[in-house]
């Protein structure tokens, strides 16, 4: 239901509702460690700056691939951005090495931020995420598949934070496919997205698309398609498991907000 213009979720949500409820907080939680100070400290011994550590760390779950491959998979980034984030560090550090170190940074971030959440909440979240992961066919979403290889992690809390990364990459992979199906380019999708993303992903004024009204309509359609496709993966969950996903996500979001 909607209260005061804001959608409010209660227990026993269906699959579409849990997809909608998790979209924004999971997007935020799963990326918070990227540019955390602690993550930056782990970049230095590898000879990388924090931006290269992000590029090689996230791209490295694809394997020791070239920048062209990463550009294809990171659909929303301009090649010039990938050359900076990923390509510039290739002579210094192997991507798979950076990926392993980047995950350790994620685990350290999870330990620092979410230790106060009861282990039972983490466990229920990990169990629900595991059920979702098991139902996603391999070979559809490359970044998601890359992170899936590390799940479960070595500790419960690490598995829990990795779960937020996996859910984030699952929606990202599903959304990429929806955008492609509708014929939107990465530049077009970014231009009508979150403010600042267009420039952040390496685009400039020369890349500005035409017919923004059409693009915005297609992007809105892509979001609907994304939620529907992601909801199909959440359909394997029981009502209580969907509640578990929301409870843990809410607890993590509140800790970050405070």
**What is the CA-atom radius of gyration, in angstroms?**
18 Å
Proportion in β-strands: under 5%
Unreliable segments of 5+ consecutive residues? 1-6
Strands of the biggest beta sheet: in what spatial order? 1-2
| Separate helix tally | 13
Provide the helix percentage.
Answer: 55-70%
Q: What structural class should be given to the helix and strand makeup?
A: mainly alpha
The main sheet comes to: 2 strands, antiparallel
Gross morphology is globular
Taking the alpha carbons of the first and last residues, their distance comes to 26 Å
The tally of structural domains comes to 2
Overall pLDDT score: 95
Order of helices and strands: EEHHHHHHHHHHHHH
Number of strands: 2
What does this structure look like?
With 258 residues, this protein is mostly helical. It folds into 2 domains: 1-30 and 115-193 and 208-258, no CATH class; 34-104, no CATH class. The protein has helices at residues 15-29, 37-43, 50-59, 67-73, 79-85, 95-114, 119-134, 142-148, 156-181, 186-191, 197-200, 212-234, 239-257; strands at residues 2-3, 6-7. A two-stranded antiparallel ribbon has the order 1-2. A hairpin with a 2-residue loop joins strand 1 and strand 2 (6-7). Helix 7 crosses helix 13 (239-257). The model is unreliable at 1-6 (pLDDT under 50).
